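# nightly structure sweep
# worker-07 picked up a monomer target from the shared queue
# config: single-sequence mode, recycle default, output format = structure tokens
# input follows
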Amino acid sequence: MLVASTNNYTCYFPHKHRGKEAMDEMGILPDFKGIAIHDHFKPYFTYKCFHALCNAHHLRELIFVYEEYDQKWAKSMIDLLLEIKEATEKTKNKKLNRELIRDFERKYNRIIKAGLKVNPPPEPSKEKKRGRVKKSKPGNLVERLKNFIDSVLAFMYNLKVPFDNNQGERDLRMGKVKQKISGLFRSYDGALNFCRIRGYISTVRKNGLPVPESIRAVFEKKALTLIMSLN
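# output follows
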């Protein structure tokens, strides 16, 4: 089950795959020109929109690296991301002070250098093998944070961008609970109908509309008028 959501709208879509094929059929990202907040799943980057990475995912990975690998840079990055988050929540302006942003960027780059120092690129194997040389989990993480700094810190540059994609996680929770309990849908049409109904209910709730009356409006063919009132 895929989900695309904002504070006002929710769209669910079922598909047997979770990659670009599914996203194309869902029909949102191919034409989307806004900011997509996601977990760095590679197919997302095939779309020509702005990308922001979920820092809740980064925090979980950084905690793992700090606790399991005892790498101090990870703890420093956790503290910095939370410090920036606090600063964005406290500001009453449309953007942070430019000097403060530069200070955060300097701290970020220093931490990345420390992370790269303890996670140098692996030496090429003497045996001839196809593909890239496998890197450690800490090495992959620090390299991602280095290469995608603009997407990691998108919430700092644009205060309208959330720190994480918890909106999507919350919207998806009910569907995942149903999957866990029922296990599956007996037909694709059943899954598609479920997603349409749940997306409609979630959307009317987000807009403060009563659910029973909104469902009744569908059968009374007044749903279009109801939906148009949200715009």
